[in-house]
Design goal:
Layout lengths: L1 E3 L11 H12 L4 E10 L10 E11 L4 E11 L7 H21 L10 E5 L4 E6 L6 E2 L9 H24 L25 H15 L6 H13 L2 H9 L7 E4 L8 E6 L2 E7 L6 E4 H12 L2 H6 L2 H18 L8 H10 L1 H15 L10 H4 L3 H11 L3 H16 L5
Helix pairs in contact: 2-3, 3-7, 3-9, 4-5, 4-11, 4-13, 7-10, 7-11, 11-14
Length: 411
């Protein structure tokens, strides 16, 4: 048995026996010999905020067969922490091992996420997936945002995923009572002083400083200052996250930022997309995911062109086709979808104010993990100033603030 750690610090529990369990679970047999394990890092240091990830190439030999190679992606999540990681891990396990296979069973030949081969809870929460890098999948540019071609591909896949979840909820209404789907990673639970409230209001204060210098934003600034003074910004966001009468409801990912999306590249073109990291999923309005994606991931030039046409040409046809194939009752119209996205625009603004601001920080400007650094008051203030000073952040905010104002969401 050959183990190549390649000078990386690999946890002791990721050993021969662990990967024997993985391969046995994957192929449905214990009749094989594990020949070698070759490790590498799953992402750049600091790119994954809540977990450690590794790539492993496992070579094994089934009896009477030639050696086979399995490319694996391993994600290790501490089962404690500020964001109650135990619940997050259990939610993700539920999604990958139960809900996503059932969503895909409601669709016709649509893959929405990588397959999960194995889950362990000791000594820490660990999940093992197929490594999609082998098929040409990778993460897009988190600093500058994704271009219109990435948006087209992702919106099509998001429409299919949402349709599958809507079909599943219609088929199995008892899922409405599943505890792990009652709230996501963004909720009144996480909007606490120790959670996301501090960066939200720090960044809101920085955003106000910038917006006060932009001609035509005077009325918006007054309303934003009121949100800051009375600490009501997150109350508005929570109101949008809660399911309201008339919402178009599916099983939302709720955290569609660029590192949670894998894009497939062939011949220099983006050809497919998959969702990953389902730790924040919730039963809620499909408008949350669309609004969040545009606000957090799309490059400013995409936002300036307007998003309605992208929804009309790529998201909606995929959603409608999948719903029709599944004989869904009361299929929403394109106008219903556009209205849903507008209703949830404040959630997108929140995503830009907190998630975009933190995740698009260039490592040369701040080389620590922003999530860890936010626990220190002085570092948190420094991060807020850096995060909210990038041209992308400011240009994105100029667009989103005007949109939210036009929808009456600041009133």
């Amino acid at each position: 048995m050959i183990i190549k750690k390649n000078n990386y610090e690999i946890p002791d529990f990721l050993n021969e026996q662990f990967f024997k369990n993985v391969i046995a679970n994957k192929i449905g047999s214990k009749e094989f010999e594990l020949i070698s394990l070759d490790f590498s890092l799953g992402c750049n240091p600091g790119d994954n905020h809540f977990s450690s990830v590794y790539r492993v190439q496992a070579t094994y030999n089934e009896k009477g067969s030639a050696s086979q190679v399995e490319d694996l992606f391993v994600k290790c999540v501490p089962l404690d922490g500020d964001l109650t990681e135990a619940d997050i891990f259990e939610k993700e396990r539920l999604m990958y091992c139960d809900i996503i296979p059932r969503i895909e069973s409601c669709l016709v030949n649509v893959k929405t996420a990588p397959k999960c081969y194995y889950v362990a809870t000791e000594p820490i929460g660990t999940m093992v997936f197929e490594d999609m890098k082998i098929a040409g999948y990778d993460i897009a540019d988190r600093i500058n945002g994704v271009d219109i071609n990435h948006c087209k591909v992702f919106l099509k896949k998001l429409g299919q995923y949402h349709a599958g979840s809507m079909l599943l909820l219609e088929k199995e209404p008892s899922l409405k009572e599943t505890d792990n789907l009652k709230h996501g990673i963004f909720s009144s639970v996480s909007f606490t002083k120790k959670g996301l409230a501090r960066p939200a209001y720090m960044n809101l204060a920085e955003m106000i400083e910038h917006a006060s210098k932009w001609p035509g934003y005077e009325k918006i600034v007054i309303k934003l200052k009121d949100f800051l003074k009375n600490k009501t910004f997150l109350d508005k966001v929570v109101d949008e996250i809660r399911i309201s009468p008339g919402d178009i409801v599916g099983i939302c990912h709720e955290d569609c930022w660029v590192n949670n999306i894998l894009f497939q590249y062939k011949g220099g073109l983006v050809t497919d997309a998959l969702l990953i990291d389902f730790q924040g999923c919730t039963r809620g309005s499909i408008g949350l995911d669309i609004s969040f994606f545009f606000a957090v991931d799309a490059a400013p030039n995409v936002l300036r062109q307007g998003t309605d046409q992208l929804i009309e040409d790529f998201y909606y046809p995929a959603l409608r086709a999948a719903l029709e194939e599944g004989s869904y009752k009361n299929i929403p119209t394109i106008q219903d979808i556009k209205n849903e996205v507008k209703k949830k625009a404040m959630f997108g603004l929140f995503g830009a104010a907190v998630v975009l601001a933190l995740t698009s920080i260039d490592r040369k400007d701040f080389d620590e993990n922003p999530v860890d650094a936010m626990k220190d008051d002085k570092k948190a203030e420094k991060i807020a100033k850096i995060a909210c000073s990038s041209e992308r952040f400011k240009e994105t905010m100029k667009i989103l603030l005007k949109e939210c104002e036009s929808y009456g969401l600041f009133d």
